[in-house]
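Researcher: Next sequence.
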Amino acid sequence: QVELAESGGGLVQAGGSLRLSCVVSVVSGRLETIYSAAWYRQTPGNQREMLASISSSGYTTHADSVKGRFTISKDNVDNKIHLQMNSLRPDDAGVYYCTANIKTRRGAALTLADYWGQGTKVTVSS
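Model: Next structure:
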């Protein structure tokens, strides 16, 4: 079983910065590889919107709405995925979710699956 835990959300003034982190931990078995990861944002009444993604090789994509302001990165040593958010605007507010495609091993069994965290809330005051 894999758990993703986001942190770093909170209240910030418009124009400010936040750094979100997502820690990947394996409850049972061993983590083999984090193949890809992404950050999503959800606002009330709307579907989750993908903001940024990173592949196993480090290739990144960013939504037009955050390009030039947000940066996704992955720490393969500490098994963390980060989202650096600069020049925050009130419409950046929402609950931010981390997701990752992860391979784990438990004995001889390999499992490849997508996992989601519980989310961290970001509020931006104008």
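Model: The chain is about 0% helix and 65% strand. The radius of gyration is 15 Å.
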